[in-house]
Amino acid sequence: MITSLNNDHVKDVRALQTRKRHREKTGRFVVEGTRLVEEAALAEVPIESVFYTEDYVSVPAGAALLDELSLLGATLIPVDGPVMEAMSDTQTPQGVLAVLPTPALDVPEDLPFALVIDGVGDPGNLGTIMRAAASGAVPLLIIAPGTVDPFNPKVVRGAMGAHFRLPIRRLSWGGIASALAGRAIFLADIGTGANYYDVDWTQPCALIVSEEAHGPSEDAARLAHARVTIPMPGHMESLNVAMAASILIFERVRQQATHERS
């Protein structure tokens, strides 16, 4: 059992939790809690190591999950309570966390749609967008420069397992332009452009969403072919970017379902 905060495993996990550069350099990240560890197992991600407390393994459900993870090849490492608290990014750790490689899910060769995240800095917002994108079967999520790291622990918690279902790519604006060549590119904006339900989302296309506090970046505005907006008859100034993205994602889902029925 690990009882020292100076243990190399503890230092590594803390670095993965707190340092984007360490996550990128090692190609690994951390998931915490029963739900996310179960999601990783269901997705058959090759989990590297699992850290757990005696309290966690003393509960039948916890012991069963650890047995399953062991069969999947994960290395199980017990730690004491203070060490788990030091390794965790939450105030009340559940007693289990896992280190695993950054997923690299395949992107469809004939890409029908991509969602581009432009300068969203709040981890909670990005996590919620990712959860909606995975639920709406978005085939590619592109992280543009200036956006929070999608493997930030707060993003990971907010995404609720979306990382294991949603292809993610971090690209420069030049790379984004190349990846989206030949597709209609729409930019979500406040009060400007076509109403979102009048846009044909069944065509090969992409949508750029931006942080509502500062609006679209100059790069996003240059890349877009047209703007779309969500009418707000209640005259509110704007919608939270995660809420707006969810509305737009599921309009595409609705149009696809209507198209398939016709």
Distance between the termini: 61 Å
- What is the CATH superfamily label of the largest domain? SPOUT methyltransferase, trefoil knot domain
The averaged pLDDT comes out at 96
Low-pLDDT sequence parts: none
Structure classification: alpha/beta
* Residue share in β-strands: 15-25%
CATH class descriptor name of the largest domain:
Alpha Beta
Strand order of the largest sheet: 7-6-5-10-8-11-9
Largest sheet: 7 strands, parallel
- Please estimate the helix content: 40-55%
Question: Your description of this structure?
Answer:
With 262 residues, the chain is an alpha/beta fold. The chain has two domains: 8-101, 60s Ribosomal Protein L30, Chain: A (2-Layer Sandwich), CATH 3.30.1330.30; 113-261, SPOUT methyltransferase, trefoil knot domain (Alpha/beta knot, 3-Layer(aba) Sandwich), CATH 3.40.1280.10. The chain has eleven helices and eleven strands. A seven-stranded parallel sheet has the order 7-6-5-10-8-11-9. A four-stranded mixed sheet has the order 1-4-2-3, with helices on both faces. Helix 7 (123-135) runs parallel beside helix 8 (153-159) and helix 7 packs parallel to helix 11 (241-261). The chain is elongated and about 60 Å long. It starts with 7 loop residues before the first helix and ends with a helix. The mean pLDDT is 96.
